[in-house]
Amino acid sequence: MARGRSCGLGERQLRPYRAEDEPAVLALWARALQRWPVTAEGFRSRTVGTEQLVMVVGGALVGYISVARAQTRAQLTAILVDPACRRAGLGSELLAEARRNLGGGVKSWSAGSGAGPDFWPGVPENARDGWAFLHAHGFEPTGEMADLIADIARFQAPEWVFSRVGGGVRFELATEGDAAQVIALQERHFPNWTAFFEHQLSLPGTVLVARADGQIVGTCTVEGPAEYDFLWRGLIRGAVGAFGCVGVDPAARSRGIGLAMVARACELLSARGAEVCYCAYTYLEDWYAQLGFTCWRRYTMASA
Fold it and tell me: Rounded to the nearest 5 degrees, what angle is found at the Cα of 197, between the Cα atoms of 304 and 69?
């Protein structure tokens, strides 16, 4: 079918998303984003609580948008238009209505992430049409990020990773008694992660700490593989675990603590049965490459 031809047939209806629209939206996703197969559970978990709209033309659902807001920040989570209906202005209508519905007080508007659960950090490198659309609607690039993966089925950290840290630092899973120190570290140095770590601390075995002289000087999350909600299961073979939010107190840096903490996370995940380790949303490709991580996907960060 020629582009735009079907969208000239029938009345256009732009309306709020309803729960019963899910099968049609997932079918639209499969047509529009064949390279990014998503499950119903994954779709639902990333869009719950967001502003969602659909475009219906001639009785067929051919457009969808999801937008999140957190205080003064807004995030374009996803926008889909049926490939047979592009170049007909549907995406522009969806975006304009979603922006109007945000109301006043929004100071930043980002593509992909920045204000809630997300599918991608930014605009995937293999979504050139999507980037062209966003650029035409005022979005400008602000940097690049990458998702990394590593084979950890039989992971063994290089000896030098732990030896350079020295024997005075221990890497352990956080206990209930560590909660106050973990949160205090985030509040002092990583305030955007505070709420996230508050949640992780309620899940035993998912927070790893670096302890020096009895004080917690580093933290990261460690999840999976069994309970880890890996979004792109259709694209990676093997059981997947992940770490994230790697942070070290500035006063304790330059000692190799961060890399050693990541190595310990990989050891834990491997022992739990993970075959692949996923590291999302980073620009430190060379740093993680020391442990065997390679780039899986790259993204352009963008805001308007």
Answer: 25
pTM (global) more than 0.85? yes
Structure-block tokens of residue 145? 């990020």
Bridge-based pairing of strands 140-151 and 276-282 is antiparallel
Q: How far apart are CA 1 and CA 105, in angstroms?
A: 42
Contacts of 236 (CB under 8 A, 6+ apart): 149, 230, 276, 278, 296
CA gap 24, 153 in Å, rounded: 38
| Binned average pLDDT, 10 residues per bin, the chain of 304 residues | 50 94 98 94 94 95 95 94 92 94 89 91 88 92 96 94 92 96 97 93 96 96 92 94 97 96 98 97 96 96 92
Q: Are the CB atoms for 67 and 74 separated by under 8 Å? A: yes
Residue 262's CB is within 10 A of a number of other CB atoms, namely 27
Task: Outline where 74-136 has alpha helix (H).
Answer: 90-102, 128-136
Separation between Cα atoms, residue 256 and residue 160, nearest integer Å: 10
Helices 22-32 & 40-47 angle (0-180, nearest 10): 100
